[in-house]
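Two proteins, back to back. First:
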Amino acid sequence: MNQYEGLFIVEGKIGDDDLGRVISQIEEEIKKNKGEVLESKSLGKRQLAYTIKRNSDGFYVLINFKLQGPSLHKIQEKLKLNQKILRDLILKKS
């Protein structure tokens, strides 16, 4: 299994309950593809450098997880469908 670090920007207009649901959806998608979530934390709400989908601020969420390489593409495609996630970046840790 490879270890990955994912940084997600969730729209800033949602409340804390909705933020928790979005984080849970990301974690469930990882687990559904036989992955393991190592750490998940919210880095708080921050001002964006430029407007993304009419949002000037967003919640930053950092998730460390383990996953088989071929499953990563499936997760990325599924997360692109979530309207509340503005941007995501998933990097492989060495």
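And the second protein:
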Amino acid sequence: MSIESLVFDETSRLNSKLIDLSMESQKVIANNMANAETPNYTRLRLDFRKQLANAIQTGDIEQVSDLQPKIEEDTTNAPGNDGNNVVLPEEMNDMMQNSVFYNLATQAFKTRISILKSAIK
């Protein structure tokens, strides 16, 4: 077994993909917050959680690696008088949840690297 196969296995690819998804989600949330006062702006969201849950449930890690999130308009909130449907407290909540998700993924990656370093020593 080579070092490369230990470092770049399915778990590492999954962690990497989760970190990428979290960073993309952060960009979408920041864009929503930046446009909170833009007339007729419709909130956007990055949809990957359903696809991720399905991939994990079926145990198909390759499906996770190939996951392509979609940026979609979110019309769940009614637009205000200016036609904008961004609710800042909800965006802040989404940002905090995404931050926790990112921190968990990066911590898992760091722990894995630590274990590999210890095994090498």
